[in-house]
Amino acid sequence: MTVRVVVADDHPLFREGLRSLISDSPDTELVGLAADGDEAVSITLAQRPDVVVMDLRMPGVNGVDATRQIVSAVPDVAVLVLTMVEEDASIFAAMRAGARGYVLKGAEPETILRSILVVASGEAIFGAAVAARLTQFFAGGAEHTPIPFPDLTSRERDILALMATGANNATIAYRLGLTEKTVRNNVSNVFAKLRVADRAAAVARARDAGLGSP
After folding, report:
1. What is the DSSP string of the chain?
2. CATH number of 3-139
3. Is the pTM of this model over 0.70?
């Protein structure tokens, strides 16, 4: 049986590469292309594919939230995360959202195709690098959930989490009992540590890691 696939990725060149890879394989059929999370959800609901190949960092609804919506609405659809993001927090956020697989974009084309077929069969799969991180985590004891963005201080992490809910600096200051100046300084530190240029990019990173909600 041919596996029907939807691809969701905001990078045109990578998206086209996946289009060719999936279309050229006798085992897979491309039935939709999405450039963001909103499109991924709408195309999936319309096409009811077997697998959605999902990037995490996309404009609008991010990959984690799109995965959650898809799995909730169409439980039979398998989501395979294919991304550059290899932070522990993002991996676990995707798994909690219902993804059946997590593979990094540096994987060989054959590995990507095999991963699509594996999740379509109902099994879970993780790329070698991701599997190594999971093994290391569980070998160290799974009693603690990995802390998102360990380089941030607890205050910076609290501020980032509130940013991810859409709160502005004044609201964050009120919620945390801080001055707006202190919040602004901490926000600048967050930008620097996450290596992002603006609030939107920081919020996208936070939501990828499962913090906040749109």
Report:
1. -PEEEEEE-S-HHHHHHHHHHHHH-TTEEEEEEESSHHHHHHHHHHH--SEEEE-S--SSS-HHHHHHHHHHH-TTSEEEEEES---HHHHHHHHHHT-SEEEETTS-HHHHHHHHHHHHTT--EE-HHHHHHHHHHHHT-TTSPPPS-TTS-HHHHHHHHHHHTT--HHHHHHHHT--HHHHHHHHHHHHHHHT-SSHHHHHHHHHHTT-S--
2. 3.40.50.2300
3. no
